[in-house]
Design a protein that fits this description.
It is elongated and about 50 Å long. The longest helix is centred in the N-terminal third of the chain and has 5 residues. With 65 residues, it is α+β, with helices and mostly antiparallel strands.
C-alpha cells in the first residue's frame, strides 16, 4: 500500500475489483427545479460500495480477547 501511496479506503478501492469508492462512484440527484446535487461530495464516508454487500465502513484494529 505504501508503494502506491494509498491513504484511505477509497485509494484501495481503485485497485480492487467489485468495489467503488469516491473516485469511481457517482450518485447525482436532480430536484424538481433542475438543480443537480452530488451526494458523494455531500457525504463521502458513505460513498463506497462493495459488490453484494452494503456500504463499506472503516474499522480500527481493536480486538477483543
Amino acid at each position: 500500500m505504501t508503494d502506491f501511496a494509498m491513504l484511505d479506503i477509497n485509494d484501495v478501492f481503485l485497485y480492487v475489483a467489485g468495489t467503488e469508492g469516491t473516485g469511481t462512484y457517482t450518485d447525482y440527484t436532480l430536484d424538481r427545479n433542475g438543480s443537480i446535487s452530488d451526494n458523494v461530495q455531500a457525504n463521502p464516508t458513505q460513498a463506497n460500495r462493495v459488490r453484494g454487500i452494503a456500504s463499506a465502513n472503516v474499522s480500527l484494529g481493536i480486538s477483543r480477547r
